[in-house]
């Protein structure tokens, strides 16, 4: 966005490739994704269309998920379909919950009409319970919220709605790795005269006259600039500014006092060629009802989301997990965590597999090998504290504290990324736009 407006942009990335949660990696010749499975609202007039057009991302090979059931929620023995389109979504669920027909209409109207800031100080849990009487329906509507933190006491209605509505408008995945997005953005930055430097971990921001003048990286290089934008967790950003006069303790305390959302465990299954048929939807599986309680403190897999790729030679199983479970290896680094860590990962992968087999009974026989990642993996690659999947926890009881502005006490230092307002591709893209506006105003 800034390149397109004539600014010269340099990206400093600590890893050997750019993209953070959107990067893809290769194992034994196969491509795997990290944090990109599907996005919502890409059709004309929908939540992400305009922004993705501006970012030159609409021409990527997007594949629409099945409009007759882009998400399929299984709770115990029953499966419910999420149909594309607000009215169709409500009508489909009203077949299973006829007494809630009117409330379902109210629900989809609210999703359709949500404003940019509506509901930051309203509890998602309370809202759903005021709207609906049937607890199973509440479960069904909440079950796909593996893509956010389903936590009764803190989750704002705002986060819930923004992570549901766009997907109901239309849901898409890439016919290819998530790195296609990263490659396109990097290509456009470079075409406009900018640069992307990998392996350049920022360790310090240098100040002069209360402004940042340069970023120092671990290699000792200095990168000078007029404006600096940090996409890392704000606590990491503050660690680069230990002696700043402008960053008061009250600001530091605010950033460090906000908790982080849960982490994610992923089991990526490599499947024997042709062993399963591709499915063009996501499967969310719960063995028991009361999905909110199960998400509260996930010490063991409570739900699995199953995502396949178009070639049907891979399936990702994701489940939320708390950092406590992985804490004892927190002093270790990737590849050096020991046998007991591997054993725990194997156990969790096995439990995920058992959940997945509720929907795909012969899955086990189709698996060639499994790669797993824990919150520690995320922490070590992306520098997210506690390997949090979605960054700083938003709390409807305290939106002023947990929702951050892109501006900071230092006039030419800006923040962006999932920690500010909303996570996910949509949240991060929208926040980027907001940050860019602030940068352009500053100039
Ligand atoms: C398992 C999982 C599945 C997900 N699935 C989806 C999905 O299907 N759809 C969706 O929309 N969203 C999904 N998300 C969420 C989405 O991926 C994230 O919200 C989003 O990518 C976060 O982007 P970000 O730029 O804020 O942070 P990050 O992607 O974490 O980027 C931060 C970058 O900063 C770099 N960095 C850190 N420290 C330094 C330093 N000192 N110097 C230089 N660089 C540094 C990191 O290496 C990283 O590249 C998923 C997330 C997870 C964890």
Short key terms for the protein model shown above:
alpha+beta, FAD/NAD(P)-binding domain, seven-stranded mixed β-sheet, three-stranded antiparallel β-sheet, globular, binds flavin-adenine dinucleotide
Describe this structure in words.
The protein has 443 residues and is of the alpha+beta class. The protein has three domains: 3-43 and 176-258 and 405-442, 3-Layer(bba) Sandwich (FAD/NAD(P)-binding domain); 68-169, no CATH class; 262-387, no CATH class. Helix content is 32%, strand content 21%. The chain has 16 helices and 19 strands. A seven-stranded mixed sheet has the order 7-6-15-16-17-14-18. A hairpin with a 2-residue loop joins strand 10 and strand 11. Helix 2 (86-96) packs antiparallel against helix 3. The radius of gyration is 22 Å and the shape is globular. The mean pLDDT is 93. Bound molecules: flavin-adenine dinucleotide.
| CATH H-tier superfamily of the largest domain | FAD/NAD(P)-binding domain
Q: What is the β-strand count?
A: 19
Instruction: Please state the second-level CATH architecture of the largest domain.
Output: 3-Layer(bba) Sandwich
Please identify the top-level CATH class of the largest domain: Alpha Beta
Structure annotation, total helices: 16
Distance between the termini: 14 Å
Largest sheet: 7 strands, mixed
Question: Per CATH, what is the topology of the largest domain?
Answer: FAD/NAD(P)-binding domain
* Total number of distinct structural domains: 3
Structural class by SSE content: alpha+beta
Strand-residue proportion = 15-25%
Low-confidence stretches: none
Strand order of the largest sheet: 7-6-15-16-17-14-18
Bound molecule types: flavin-adenine dinucleotide
**Helix share bin:** 25-40%
Radius of gyration: 22 Å
């Amino acid at each position: 966005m800034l390149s397109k407006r004539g600014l010269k942009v340099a990206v400093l990335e600590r890893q050997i490739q750019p993209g953070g949660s959107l990067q893809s990696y290769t194992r034994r010749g196969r491509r795997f994704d990290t944090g990109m499975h599907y996005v919502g609202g890409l059709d004309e007039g929908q939540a992400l269309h305009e922004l993705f057009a501006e970012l030159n991302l609409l021409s990527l090979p997007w594949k629409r998920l099945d409009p007759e059931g882009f998400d399929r929620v299984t709770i115990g023995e029953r499966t419910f379909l999420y149909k594309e389109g607000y009215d169709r979504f409500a009508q489909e669920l009203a077949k299973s919950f006829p007494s809630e027909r009117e409330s379902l209409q109210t629900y989809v109207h609210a999703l359709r009409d949500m404003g940019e800031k509506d509901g930051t100080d309203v509890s998602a849990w309370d809202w759903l319970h005021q709207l609906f009487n049937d607890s199973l329906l509440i479960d069904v509507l909440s079950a796909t919220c593996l893509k956010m933190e389903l936590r009764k006491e803190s989750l704002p209605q705002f986060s819930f709605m923004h992570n549901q509505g766009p997907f109901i408008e239309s849901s898409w995945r890439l016919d290819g790795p998530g790195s296609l997005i990263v490659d396109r953005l990097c290509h456009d930055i470079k075409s406009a005269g900018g640069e992307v430097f990998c392996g350049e971990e920022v360790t310090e921001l240098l100040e002069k006259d209360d402004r940042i003048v340069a970023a120092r990286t671990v290699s000792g290089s200095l990168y000078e600039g007029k404006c600096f934008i940090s996409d890392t967790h704000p606590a990491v950003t503050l660690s680069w500014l230990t002696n700043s006069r402008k960053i008061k303790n009250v600001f530091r305390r605010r950033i460090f006092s906000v908790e982080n959302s849960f982490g994610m465990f992923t089991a990526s299954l490599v499947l024997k060629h042709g062993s399963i048929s591709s499915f063009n939807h996501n499967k969310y599986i719960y063995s028991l009802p009361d999905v909110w309680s199960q998400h509260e403190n996930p010490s063991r897999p409570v739900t699995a989301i199953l995502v396949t790729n178009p070639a049907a030679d891979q399936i990702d199983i994701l489940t939320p997990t708390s950092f406590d479970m992985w804490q004892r290896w927190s002093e270790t680094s990737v590849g050096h965590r020991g046998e007991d860590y591997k054993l725990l990962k194997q156990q969790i992968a096995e439990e995920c597999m058992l959940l997945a087999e509720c929907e795909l009974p012969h899955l086990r026989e189709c698996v060639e090998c499994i790669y797993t990642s824990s919150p520690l993996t995320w922490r070590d690659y992306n520098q997210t504290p506690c390997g949090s999947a979605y960054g700083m926890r938003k709390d409807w009881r305290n939106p002023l504290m947990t929702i951050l502005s892109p501006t900071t006490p230092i006039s030419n230092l800006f923040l962006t990324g999932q920690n500010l307002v909303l996570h996910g591709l949509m949240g991060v893209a929208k926040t980027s736009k907001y940050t860019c506006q602030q940068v352009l105003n500053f100039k």
